[in-house]
Amino acid sequence: MVERTQLVEQELDALYQVSQILNSQDDLQDKLQGILGTLHERAGMRSGMVALRELESDALVVAAIRGKDNQPIEVPVRYESGEGIMGLVLDAGYTIAVERIADEPRFLGRLGLYDPALPFIGAPIRVGKDDLIGVLAAQPTDSEWLGERSRFMEMVANLVAQSVSLLRAMEEQRRELVNERDRLKQTLRKNFGFENIIGHTPAMIRVFERVYQVAKWNTTVLIRGESGTGKEAIANAIHYQSPCASGPFIKLNCAALPDNLLESELFGHEKGAFTGAISQRKGRFELANHGTLFLDEIGEISLAFQAKLLRVLQEGEFERVGAIQTLKVQVRIIAATNKNLEDEVEAGRFREDLYYRLNVMPIIMPPLRDRLEDLPELAQFLMARISRNQGGRPLELKESAIRMLMRHDWPGNVRELENCLERAAIMSEDGVIDRDVIIMTGLEDEIALSSPASAKLDFNTEGMDEREQVIAALEQAGWVQAKAARLLNMTPRQIAYRVKQLNIRMKQI
């Protein structure tokens, strides 16, 4: 028999040890196992068990036990609400004490832990008044002071509750962050994947073939082409389809910075390395470790800086500005330029060794004027993006607008096309973009008889309304109303009336 004073001292010592365990850096499983060990060794509470409520249901799942040989649970054990004594504690929400297990018909004994001749105490693990998250159970060595021991078990359960609640909240937050990360990754892949690069012309098919080949490896890529051809979109697609897609994708426009700032941006700097360096800062190479670094306008960097860049590309090593420690990184390089680097090498403005280091896998982006067959699909894709940016506003691009866009030379390439369409969307009050709206954007209405747009038109194309048919016939007829009337089986008087009624702006020839 245990004297009450001795029992109180044991319980106080055990509570102190439990608080120490809960304040440790161990994970939840180790904490629960340590608490059951303390109850066994210091408080005379044998065969301890902690069962926690599943987040998705009302069932209890055994999380930790203290058996004779202290072996972990191999097969998950569950108790539904009201099932056995554990389920009864969960269902009732208060402590249940049994003087002798053998006399309790509701005892299930699934784990084979308990001595049927000894008492049993099950205490709810509760957060606040209503949130019951589990059950703490154990066997006293005798039935004396059973009420006192029940209160002790309740105190331990209260300590456990706070720790479990905090750890579960952290786990839920971590799970939400992981889900958000995965959702953002899917969004990035969707926004920057291959499906966002439009083109079916032979020149674009060659680009796609190169991108598919190189995306599988960490090879250095040099994307070449005029400004506005979509070099950055290709760089995005390569990264997000590559083995380092889970790593960072860091971008830098090399033409935007002088050498001293470019060195700091790429390599980072130490505190006090120069005036204004008030703290240490990581550079783009360091930030892109195990990912991709996109260096746009690579042809604009000076010869002096080219030598510093070459070392990083060859060795993967660099020093921050003002530092002596050498850092190593593993970064996939994608560079882009609108310059003819061969001419730059010939003129001595670009290092030949750097050129060959960058030009491992070249990808040539064709200008828009060389793939006009892609323009209708590209224009529709850009209109959908503009619509989303304008809050989901409905936008419709008419055939007359597309034909006019097809006759332009597009010196600014895809970027110019997107800007033109965005201006048109702003200028169109009803969201319908036809030839007249395109003219309002400042695009010249050029006549190009050799253009694919000047081929014979089908005036009965599905979705082409009367206004579009009249405009198409006028374009086909070189804006001569009499000829257009014959194409539409109308009289000159009829077509003149429709031009006026449909508010068609006539092109002056």
Can you describe this structure?
The chain contains 18 helices and 17 strands. The chain has helices spanning 4-22, 28-42, 84-92, 146-192, 202-215, 231-240, 259-267, 284-287, 303-315, 341-346, 352-358, 375-389, 399-406, 413-427, 435-440, 466-476, 481-487, 492-501, and strands spanning 45-53, 60-65, 78-79, 96-98, 120-127, 131-140, 221-224, 249-253, 268-269, 281-282, 292-296, 317-318, 327-328, 332-337, 361-364, 396-397, 432-433. With 509 residues, it is α/β, with parallel strands linked by helices. A hairpin with an 8-residue loop joins strand 12 and strand 13. The chain has three domains: 4-171, 2-Layer Sandwich (Beta-Lactamase), CATH 3.30.450.40; 193-366, Rossmann fold (3-Layer(aba) Sandwich); 370-501, Helicase, Ruva Protein, domain 3 (Orthogonal Bundle). The strands form five sheets. It has a six-stranded antiparallel sheet. Strands 8-11-14-7-15 form a five-stranded parallel sheet.
Number of separate helices: 18
- Strand pairing plus helix content: what structural class? alpha/beta
As laid out across the biggest beta sheet, the strand order is: 3-2-1-6-5-4
Q: What is the number of strand segments? A: 17
Major sheet summary line? 6 strands, antiparallel
Number of domains: 3
Binned, the helix content reads 40-55%
Provide the low-confidence segments as ranges: 447-455
Top-tier CATH class of the largest domain: Alpha Beta
Strand content: 5-15%
